[in-house]
């Protein structure tokens, strides 16, 4: 019997509503004759307190079985749309164009970072098959996620006028499914990266020297010592791991809407640590809006970081792509950019293969 109660309640509501509408239709001027309007409403008269309560979604303002459905005016939705279509989109474009322009300028001034002693023809194994699989799994998934995410944010302004509505709709629909499913491949890649490379990415005293000399990127003949991962690579590693975790958590909230609530608890911790007053009693809809905005922010941030990473690994530095291409790097390249790592392999008698 309990399963029929909601149906009976809905049926009763329909009957009552229909009866009320019929009565109003039969006597359209009854309420006006008494100096009122149908439903005891105020007509053109403004009730400030009523509308304020309505906009704030106060309980009892609207009678509806579903609490979320009873919110007629959701002011945070206006804020979300204004942020997404305003500063988020604007600063995102400037960030993407800015990093591309900065890298282009750096390339024009510095040129490609060459192997100063030339290629030796002898190679050292830098990354094994599992390392390369992890890298390319994460990289492939992220590139598709970035492109489809950018399409969701900017596609209607950039692609829609070029390819037309039908092609854009088809592309966006396919991109949406790719974005949803490849997200799990990206998260798997993050886990593998953390497990495989965390041991090489703890800071050490050599990192400060590397940073002080700009990694030798700005001046020829400068090769600060570094182990298997230099300070720049460690920064990229932690940005990808921490940023990837953040974008993954917000993505999970979007993949499974209204199942998780993270921002209220996060704000509570932030308030406790820093004495701030961020709101903690967030509605499920507010949680989803914050998740969407944060997901876009972190996605744009990681895209900017990865563009710089791609530059260094391809045209920016000679011999760098070999590390994740074949897994073997030229011995001179290894000595110039990761001297401490090479010396450690020599001490252990493993330089011939470079296995570690």
What does this 3D model show about the protein?
- Helices cover 66% and strands 2% of the residues.
- It is an all-alpha fold and 356 residues long.
- It has two domains: 2-45, no CATH class; 75-347, Up-down Bundle (Fumarate Reductase Cytochrome B subunit), CATH 1.20.950.
- The chain has a two-stranded antiparallel sheet with strand order 1-2.
- Helix 4 (75-110) packs parallel to helix 11 (284-316) and helix 7 crosses helix 9 (231-255).
- The chain is elongated and about 80 Å long.
- The N and C termini lie far apart (68 Å).
Q: Which helices and strands occur, and which strands form pairs?
A:
Blueprint: H1 5-26, H2 30-33, H3 48-56, H4 75-110, E1 123-125, H5 129-158, H6 160-163, H7 165-197, H8 205-212, H9 231-255, H10 263-274, H11 284-316, H12 322-325, E2 328-330, H13 331-337, H14 339-347
Antiparallel strand pairs: 1-2
Helix pairs in contact: 4-11, 5-7, 5-11, 7-9, 9-11, 13-14
């Amino acid at each position: 019997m309990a399963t029929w109660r909601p149906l009976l309640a809905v049926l009763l509501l329909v009957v009552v509503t229909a009866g009320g509408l019929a009565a109003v239709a039969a006597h359209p001027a009854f309420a006006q004759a008494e100096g009122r309007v149908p439903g005891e409403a105020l007509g053109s008269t403004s009730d400030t307190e009523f509308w304020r309560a309505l906009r704030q979604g106060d309980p009892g303002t609207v009678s509806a079985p579903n609490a979320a459905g009873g919110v007629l005016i959701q002011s945070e939705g206006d804020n979300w749309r204004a942020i997404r279509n305003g500063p988020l989109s604007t600063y995102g474009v400037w960030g993407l164009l800015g990093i591309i322009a900065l890298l282009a300028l750096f390339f024009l001034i510095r040129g490609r970072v060459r192997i100063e002693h030339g290629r030796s023809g002898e190679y050292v194994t830098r990354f094994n098959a599992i390392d390369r699989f992890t890298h390319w799994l994460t990289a492939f998934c992220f590139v598709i996620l970035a492109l489809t995410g950018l399409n969701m944010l900017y596609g209607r302004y950039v692609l829609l006028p070029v390819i037309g509505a039908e092609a854009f709709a088809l592309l966006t629909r396919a991109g949406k499914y790719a974005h949803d499913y490849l997200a799990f491949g990206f998260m798997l890649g993050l886990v593998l990266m953390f497990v495989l490379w965390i041991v090489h990415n703890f800071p050490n005293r050599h990192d400060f020297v590397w940073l002080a000399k700009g990694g030798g990127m700005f001046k020829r003949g400068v090769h600060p010592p570094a182990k298997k991962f230099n300070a720049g690579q460690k920064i990229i590693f932690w940005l990808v791991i921490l940023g990837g975790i953040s974008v993954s958590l917000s993505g999970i909230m979007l993949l499974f809407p209204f199942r998780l609530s993270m921002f209220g608890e996060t704000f509570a911790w932030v308030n406790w640590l820093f004495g701030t007053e961020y709101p903690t009693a967030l509605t499920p809809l507010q949680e989803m809006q914050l998740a969407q905005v944060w997901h876009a922010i972190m996605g744009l941030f990681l895209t900017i970081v990865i563009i710089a990473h791609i530059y260094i690994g391809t045209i920016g530095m000679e011999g760098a792509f070999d590390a994740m291409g074949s897994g073997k790097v030229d011995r001179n390249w290894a000595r110039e950019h990761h001297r401490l790592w090479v010396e450690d392999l020599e001490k252990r008698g493993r330089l011939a293969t470079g296995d570690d």
